[in-house]
Each structure stands twice: as structure tokens, then as C-alpha cells.
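Quick start: what a row looks like.
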Amino acid sequence: MKYINKILFVLFLSACLLLPHQPQAWGFFGHRLLNRLAVFTLPPEMIGFYKTNIEYLTENATRPDSRRAVVPGEAARHFLDADVYGDSALTKLPRSYADAVAKYGEDSLMKHGIVPWQVVRMKSQLTEAFRTRDADRILSLSADLGHYIADACVPLHTTHNYNGQLTGQRGIHGLWESRLPEILAANYDFFTGPAPYLDRPSETIWTTVGRSNAALDSVLRFEKELTAKFDEDKKYGFEERGNQTVRVYSREFSREYHQRLAGQVERQMRLAQRLIGAFWYTCWVDAGQPDLDKLPTQPSQKEQLRLAQEAKDLQQAPMATVPGHED
């Protein structure tokens, strides 16, 4: 199953692109696709339960973004401004959140992001959910954990200059994370093989953030070079999204940017997909490999009501300004 049913993938992509554009990390399309594909990296003992609930995992992959502006502390879970901590920050920052709080203060950490610590925290929570055979919590935590892991694979989630606002490149966030996957992912190779067990999950997510940060120079530099080459009317265009007409980076500009990046977005998406499956698998193993075939085959009515109430509350809650990475 090297291409994981190419026809269904293209249909999934087409359906996503009919929806209104949403400027969240990896976009509406990317987060949902990554959670969905991660299911196919799981071993036989897990894939039955996860595949049965694949629509839940897909649909709820963007739920953390929906909470960003209304749930206190949510925004900080999606990024880490590594550059505010100085040179070699990613090798020096404490791996323990308690140690980081003691060194920098929690207010500072929340201002500059906590994504690697959030992934480690949720790893422990999902392991416990497997241990207690709590099917609803397994699904909820799996969906959320997949989102944060994917965010850690995005270079622009590792810098204070998250949307190019400090270098005159405002909008690059959506270009790299959303526009390129939307128009090019149908040709990406998402066969990553089976999810591996992570001996040191904390170091894995920190290494991942470091890899993302190392790619940042190319992300910014190539966009700036191309902008100097393209006239404004060639750099941007307009497309229909549902019943909206939205301004987007042109396909010509996007494709040339993709070529200069030499497959960087595809590599990071593959990494995210593989890591999501790996963290799910590691949590299951660390919980003693419980028999998932004995769990309910779908979310309980209580969980469905909870999600419906959460969606209603989010819709009615006043939007709040949150510090950092709001674009």
C-alpha cells in the first residue's frame, strides 16, 4: 500500500480545498491529512481501533487551533520562539518543564511557547489513557497530540519571526504551511513505513524542533529572493474557496518557491506523519500493549456530547488577543 490509496487521497484533498481558507498551522488540510495518514503507520494490534475511528482523528485534528483564542494557555502550546533564548538555545533549554519554569518563569515560557514540553506532557497523558483503557480519552488525546507534533515540524513555529513580520515577509506562514501542501501534496510520497518505538520521546521532540529551526534560514531567504524577482500581480492571485474569493500566493510563485526549497515541505510532512504514529505507538507500548480490540468501536455518546458542547462554547466565546503567533 505504498501510496495509501491514491484515488481516495486525491478526493480527500479536493474536498478540503472546497472549504474556506483557514490560516492555522499546516492549515485545515494539512493537520487533518497528517493525523489521517499516521493511522496507516500503526501495527496490526493498533490499526483496527484507530482505523475504525479515523474520521474522529481526522475531524478533530484542528481542534487545538479552534481553542487558541478562547482557552487560556492554549496558544503557547503550538510553538517555541527558540531565537529569544540566544545561541544554541535548543541544546541548552531544560528538558524538564519544572526546571524551565524555575529558570525562566512561567510567564516568559508561555509568552515564547512550550510546544516540546506540551508534547512530552501529552505523551504521559496518552500513555495513562491506554493503561486505563479509556477509549474516549485515547481518541481525544491522540487527535490533540498529533496536532502539536505536526506544529513542532514547522520551521516558522520555532521563531519569533513566525510570519515574516520582522523581515518584511508577512504572509510567509500561510505560504509554507498551507499554500504549498494544498497545491502540491497530491504528488508527495507519504509512504514512511511502520511507526518506530521511541526510546527517548522527550529527546525526539526536541531534536525535531531543532531540525525545524535549522530549516528556517532557507524558508525566509528563498521567499525574499523570489519576491525580488516577481511583480506584485504575479506573486499573488485570487481563487474561489467555497463561497469566498480569497487572495492567495500565485501557483507560479508557489511552485518556484517549492522548487527552491527542494522538497522541504514534503520532508517535514513525512516527518510529522511518522512521528505522530510513533508517539501513539510508544504510548501504547509503554502502557503494556492493552488489547484495543476490546475497546468500544466508536466514541461514546458522552464524548460526542462533550465535543458538541465544546464547539458551541467556542462559537459563542468572545475572541481574545493571544500573545505570539496569532497570524
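That is the whole record. The longest helix spans residues 264-286. The chain is about 60% helix and 5% strand.
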